[in-house]
Amino acid sequence: MTSLTITTPDDWHLHFRDGDFLKETVPATSRCFRRAIVMPNLVPPVANASMAMEYKKRILSASPEGSDFEPLMTLYLTNDTTPQDIVDAKREGVIAVKLYPAGATTNSDAAVSDLSHLEPVFEAIAQEGLLLLVHGEVTDNEIDIFDREKMFIDRHLQDIVENFPELKVVFEHITTKDAVEFVLASSANVAATITPQHLLLNRNDLLVGGVQPHNYCLPVLKRNIHQLALQDAVVSGSPKFFLGTDSAPHEKHRKESACGCAGCYSAWSAIELYAQIFEQLDVLDKLEGFASHFGADFYGLERNTDTITLIKQEWQVPDEIILPNGNPIVPFFAGKTLNWKLES
């Protein structure tokens, strides 16, 4: 096979950031994705409908001229979120609500510290037909970082899906065999996104031979058995698993610091990265469903009708990308060779 044409895909989880970042991240995403679920963890967080609509305007203003890219906006759950906030968000076109446990990842300090107080909000999310997007990790200091996803399932996620069976839940950027098994055992209202880094790498790629800061993300890379479980999930072709890059840019000096930021900037070569691992797994025929169909179906949106074409061509991911402010970003897989390239 020398070329592969698929329905234009969507990214069901990514971080654009804001300000000058948008001039890099929005064009990088729109080159191959028609739509993207936009994470709301800015500073301050996107916590109400008006903030979401203002952020959407800034994203669209950074889109390339003539682009029909569509950002799909989300609301950031806080301890102060009310059911009326959900009603207002639905009215303005917000499509989903993001649950971050406080302190779980970048810019999550304002997030939820007590899930028990949010039951009326969960009810409103279900009633309004929005989706609940979950960063599934506990943040207790005594819980090992490699066990935090499983602990979140046991302590919280199981109860959420049982207590609110009509609520559509996306378990974001899953990293463990436990998460795969939970999603498969749950109702049709539970699905998950999987990132390129968690399919391509495991914790050896983070820690062996010295810490590799540009492979550091949250949830953190896990051991090989969990990587294999994620690969098995996409090989299965189950519509419960679909593309979500969790692309999360940070300037190089912030990644290579005494306290490096979590996040892999994969938007620059996202669809090629997925093609790489799907080819390695000998399931290129299943890339279209994972990238272009299953997410739209789960969100209740129309599938895209146009296509993109990938060409079998070796190329090297650049070592750095320069932001408009002059500072570099190191993209995920920097300096490595990919075997597929999006046709211009």
Report on this structure.
With 344 residues, this protein is of the alpha/beta class. Helices cover 34% and strands 17% of the residues. The protein has twelve helices and 13 strands. It has helices at 22-30, 49-61, 83-92, 119-128, 148-163, 177-185, 196-200, 204-207, 224-236, 252-255, 270-280, 287-299, and strands spanning 3-7, 11-14, 35-38, 70-76, 96-99, 131-134, 168-171, 190-194, 241-243, 307-316, 321-322, 328-329, 337-342. The strands form three sheets. An eight-stranded parallel β-sheet has the order 2-3-4-5-6-7-8-9. The radius of gyration is 19 Å and the shape is globular. The mean pLDDT is 95.
List keywords for this structure.
344 residues, alpha/beta, eight-stranded parallel β-sheet, three-stranded antiparallel β-sheet, 12 helices, globular
The average pLDDT is 95
Shape: globular
Strand order of the largest sheet: 2-3-4-5-6-7-8-9
Please give the share of residues in helix.
Answer: 25-40%
Kindly state the number of beta strands: 13
Instruction: Calculate Rg over CA atoms.
Output: 19 Å
Main beta sheet:
8 strands, parallel
Low-confidence stretches: none
Gist of the model:
The chain is α/β, with parallel strands linked by helices and 344 residues long. The protein has helices spanning 22-30, 49-61, 83-92, 119-128, 148-163, 177-185, 196-200, 204-207, 224-236, 252-255, 270-280, 287-299; strands at 3-7, 11-14, 35-38, 70-76, 96-99, 131-134, 168-171, 190-194, 241-243, 307-316, 321-322, 328-329, 337-342.
